[in-house]
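Go through this fold for my students:
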Amino acid sequence: MKTTSDLPKTHRREPTGFSLIWLVPVVAAIIAGWLIWQQYWKMGPAIVVQFLNGSGLIANQTLVKYRGVRVGSVRSVELSADTQKVMVKLRLDRTATALARAGSVFWVVRPEVGTSGLHGLETIVSGPYIQVQPGSTNAAPQANFNGLEEAPILPSLTGGSEFVLSTSAIHSLSHGSPVFYRGMEVGAVQYLSLNVDSTVVDVHILIKSKFADLIRANTVFWNAGGINVDLRLLGLSFNAENLKSVVIGGVAFATPNDYGKVATNNTIFALHDKVENKWLSWLPAIVLTNGTVAAPANEGVSPLNITE
């Protein structure tokens, strides 16, 4: 007969003061805190932009962009107290703090097809976004803005020579329409205005500096945009510099072989409706420095690239 002393003895293990299981919530808390701090650190100023139309703007989804880069997002979209405007609250990234200053302009980019071209087509898939153009670097910080209902006219070229083309009708010309020389795009239309007595339209163009010597006192300009249909016995003839000018209009010019002096800034030229055959036959030998629009891909001609 076994006694209690013969039975196996059990040994009680004293609990230790630390268990690995407690590491899981601690590590999770540290990671969560780090992510929250990172998000907070990236946050820049909150600003409010008023628009007349908030179509397509969605809180926490619509982006704010500058130079094609995301610099913030829409946080809320609400009607103003008088229901006449849409109050869009934006949160900019910390790196974009300088955009929240006086003089900055905001507008909504939506798909648009017009005489000035095709714009914002990428928004067909991604949805509208808000574009910003910063004000002066010396401007004071600002938190409330009046948004534009359409994109502002921004300079598309830096530097160059300005000229004025006088015409009775602009046809398909508008801001951004290209200016061609022998099919090469060497400038663009900057803006249009009526002259002082409203009898003609002044088309202000800017020619890239590397091509400015092509413009002489006896240079001629003509409307190279849209489609001019000439019905003849043998069919149709289309007069357009290229497909781009068909859509958004364009101007072309030619300089005679016996070219005159280089035209000075703001020289006024007549803009002809049609080109004359003799203009196309002119072949003036005018030496240009770095006279290319863009270097061919993979050709290693970067020293000649004058894209501005």
